[in-house]
Design brief:
165 residues, single chain, 16% strand, globular
């Protein structure tokens, strides 16, 4: 079973992080949050946001980007950015790889992108659009990585509640 990792670098909007957390729970993906966060992860704030699944989420927080790198030595990281030279479908997502997304207002700092040019990926979109919503972007790229692994650990058939197929 491939284990994937989603990394949010300084996320600012709690609803986006909540949606991403739910997607991670639904896919068995680990979530990594790099501080500073634009919101509180206190139990009260999480309950207020209706994130009752948060208890099932495999989540780790880090003080900053350097702390993340130190605690995940040798990690294969893909950097999702509107500035990437290759699309998210151009790469093969290895088991245990990390897919990083930047904060909503600014993305991943260009200094980090310059150091990792070959691992930068983008979602194609029309030229005049600045970016997609963060939680949508995570879902698009994560499901491509899962598709490449043939959704190996996921339920592939749904069942009706009152009828049978």
């Amino acid at each position: 079973m491939a284990k994937l990792n989603i990394v949010l670098l300084e996320p600012e909007i709690p609803a986006n992080t909540g949606n991403i957390g739910r997607t991670c729970v639904a896919t068995g993906t680990k979530l990594h949050l790099i501080e500073p966060l634009g919101f509180s992860l206190s139990e009260k704030a999480i309950k207020r946001a209706g994130m009752d699944y948060w208890k099932d989420l495999d989540v780790t927080t880090y003080l900053d980007y350097e702390d993340f790198l130190q605690k995940n030595p040798g990690a294969k990281i893909y950097y999702a950015t509107t500035k990437g030279l290759q699309t998210y479908t151009d790469v093969h997502y290895e088991e245990d790889c990390y897919i990083m997304f930047g904060k909503e207002s600014a993305g991943i700092p260009e200094e980090i992108l310059m150091e990792n040019k070959e691992q930068c990926i983008r979602i194609p979109m029309l030229e005049k659009i600045r970016s997609l919503n963060l939680s949508n972007s995570v879902a698009i790229v994560l499901y491509e990585a899962l598709r490449q692994d043939n959704f190996s650990h996921m339920q592939m058939e749904g069942q009706l509640h009152h009828h049978h197929w």
